[in-house]
Design goal:
about 25% strand; alpha+beta; 9 helices; 4 domains; about 15% helix; Rossmann fold; five-stranded mixed β-sheet; six-stranded antiparallel beta barrel; Elongation Factor Tu (Ef-tu), domain 3
Length: about 625
């Protein structure tokens, strides 16, 4: 389950609290619930929260006055922590009752919202048939032999005390408004396990990997499980919001690597909203998909190659397909077809000999060899002088020497990155592709000026004159300093600008400015200017962070310009910066007859005084 959360839903490991075996005591479960969920400031209201229990359930006779209405024969359902039915200094443990867990979830829901999924792979009171008795070792239920009804009151969660408690249906109380319940079986039935684990969990994870989750509701998920395993258990889905998309759709955000594609009814050509301004060339290969949502099953339906290239879009020819291509779909670059391979030199040491040897086998020494996982042509060279980067492998990091700074030798040329070596090479190759990308016709050469100004943090007025000199700025570093960029358009063309910050320390590309494509007029008019970071709504001032131990650091301001609006989300890469994806992202735009695109670039270098520590 943890592996699926990390690999399938892209959940960071520090967002998961896992209690196994002796860790999963009643006290630890309740303490972790409060610390990791209820009192966790990192969780915003509406975030998706999953509470998963795999183990045994049990039941006890309800103590007197447990229910608001008298039910002398009613039973109380409990999940069994590791120390269930044992005696402790606080008394005998009678499990965690549904009354306690629901009170905990009530507290959680009041602070974090009702996007909560409770998954129970256990059973509480299976019918005592001969088969059940024989299969006791594989049934997720245990008999409570020592705890007595009064122990339920003694172990009741504080927040549950004094609250009216009516339903004897326990965990299966239908009105559930705080969460959705997914359970292995209904009351009176058994949940079982085999060598793969709980049957419910096994089928659940299999479904997660098979279904298009971005449009699957909880109810449809359970229907799928029942149909996929008709002879298995009777899986359960309950809750007021069971018709919501699973996890309320939170994990299924738009994948910015995808571009919108349409199949023309008159031309029968597949048109993709990606072109030369994105680094596409004829011969690039794209994979075609039905949707563009992360964390949701999305197998490719076709492979295509760029046959006709335009500045902001292209036509592709279908090479192969597994199903019919619909009139609207999505495309992702699978092979960039960069004509000049990205050149890598591997530095071998005695301690890294084996790791380097394995890496050598995966990188071709011949032009035209296999493309990397990121779809770029990578070439391994013998000497550092021939390379774009040199790599030295550590146990948990990669040291990269960058051999081709654009502007000056003062750029930070050696970086250490805690990633897999192949991932670093892919990131660096794609980074360089966008960094060096330019229109060889230079239609806007010397017609666009980029100016960088330091701002006063209180008045947001310019402190000094333009600090960019012939495309470069060398600045003393001051933590918290803010800046503004002004673009001057001296051409006779109205333009749509897109500004990114390219950080060679981690090969991240962060979008600093992209216009709203629904604007009636281009933001950068001919013979006009545009302020970026003015302090006005939607234009926050820019700031740059320097690592605590770095005394010199640098990056690039890369400007992409187009005479028509275009979606440029494809550029962003490996960045901790999180900008909201505009509602128009990925949608088609109207293309005029004449299209112009170009780029401009500037470098920014920060120098910290030796006495500065932050």
């Amino acid at each position: 389950m943890k592996r699926w959360l990390i690999d399938g839903l892209n959940v960071s490991e520090d967002q998961i609290r896992l209690l196994l075996n002796s860790q999963a005591t009643k006290q630890n479960i309740e303490d972790s619930f409060m610390e990791h969920l209820v009192n966790n400031a990192a969780i915003d209201k509406g975030d998706a929260i999953i509470i998963y229990f795999a183990g045994h359930g049990s039941s006890l006779v309800a103590p007197q006055d447990w229910f608001q209405e008298a039910k002398n024969t009613a039973e109380v359902q409990v999940i069994c922590p590791y120390d269930h039915d044992t005696n402790t200094t606080q008394g005998r443990i009678a499990g965690i009752s549904e009354r306690s867990l629901h009170a905990l979830i009530d507290d959680l829901s009041s602070t974090k919202g009702n996007n909560i999924t409770l998954i129970l792979d256990c059973c509480f009171s299976p019918a005592q048939t001969p088969r059940n008795i024989l299969d006791r070792r594989i049934t997720r239920w245990t008999r409570t032999t020592k705890a007595i009804p009064d122990d339920l009151y003694r172990g009741l969660w504080t927040g549950a005390r004094g609250k009216p408690h009516i339903s004897h249906l326990g965990f299966f109380n239908p009105p559930l408004a705080t969460h959705v319940l997914l359970a292995a079986c209904p009351l009176g039935c058994e949940s079982t396990e085999d060598k793969e684990g709980g049957k419910f969990t096994t089928n659940f994870i299999r479904a997660m990997l098979e279904l298009p989750l971005y449009r699957t509701s909880y109810a449809h998920l359970i229907e799928h499980l029942v149909q996929a395993a008709p002879d298995s258990q009777k899986f359960v889905c309950l809750g007021q919001y069971k018709d919501r998309t699973v996890f309320n759709g939170v994990p299924f955000v738009i994948d910015k690597r995808f571009s919108f594609a349409t199949l023309g009814s008159d031309t029968n050509k597949l048109k993709v909203e990606v072109g030369a301004i994105h680094g596409i060339v004829e011969g690039c290969e794209l994979t075609i998909y039905l949707h563009n949502y992360l964390c949701s099953q999305n197998p490719p339906i076709a492979c295509a190659v760029v046959s006709e290239l335009h500045p902001t879009w292209c036509y592709v020819r279908i090479k192969s397909q597994t199903s019919e291509v619909p009139t609207t779909c999505w495309a992702k670059v699978s092979k960039w077809n960069n004509h000049r391979p990205f050149r890598v030199h591997l530095k071998s040491t005695l301690t890294s000999f084996v790791r380097i040897w394995k890496l050598r086998r995966t990188i071709s020494t011949k032009v035209g060899g296999l493309a990397s996982k990121g779809g770029l042509n990578i070439l391994r060279v013998r000497h550092a002088a021939q390379a774009d980067i040199s790599l030295a492998l550590g146990r948990h990091s990669v040291t990269v020497v960058q051999h081709q700074p654009i502007f000056s030798e003062k750029h930070h040329r050696v970086v250490k990155i805690e990633k897999d070596a192949l991932e670093v090479i892919d990131d660096a190759a794609l980074f360089n592709l966008h960094l060096f990308l330019k229109n060889l016709e230079y239609p806007l050469q010397n017609l666009i000026e980029m100016e960088l100004y330091r701002l006063d943090p209180l008045s947001w007025t310019k402190v000094d004159s333009n600090v960019l000199d012939t495309g470069a700025a060398i600045l003393p570093y001051e933590g918290g300093a803010i800046y503004q960029i002004i673009l001057q358009n001296k051409s006779q063309v109205d333009l749509w600008p897109y500004l990114v910050y390219m950080d060679p320390n981690g090969y991240s590309i962060t979008m600093l400015y992209q216009p709203d494509l629904s604007l009636e007029n281009p933001p950068l008019p001919k013979q006009g200017f545009l302020e970026i970071g003015s302090g006005k709504p939607g234009s926050e001032a820019l700031s740059f962070a320097l690592g605590t131990h770095n005394h010199l650091d640098s990056g690039y301001l890369k400007l992409f310009l187009s005479s028509i609006p275009v979606t440029m989300n494809l550029l962003e890469q490996s960045s901790s910066y999180s900008s909201p994806t505009p509602s128009h992202a990925g949608l088609p735009v109207t293309h005029s007859e004449v299209q112009i695109w170009d780029t401009a670039i500037a470098s920014v270098t920060f120098i910290r005084h030796p006495d500065q520590t932050s």
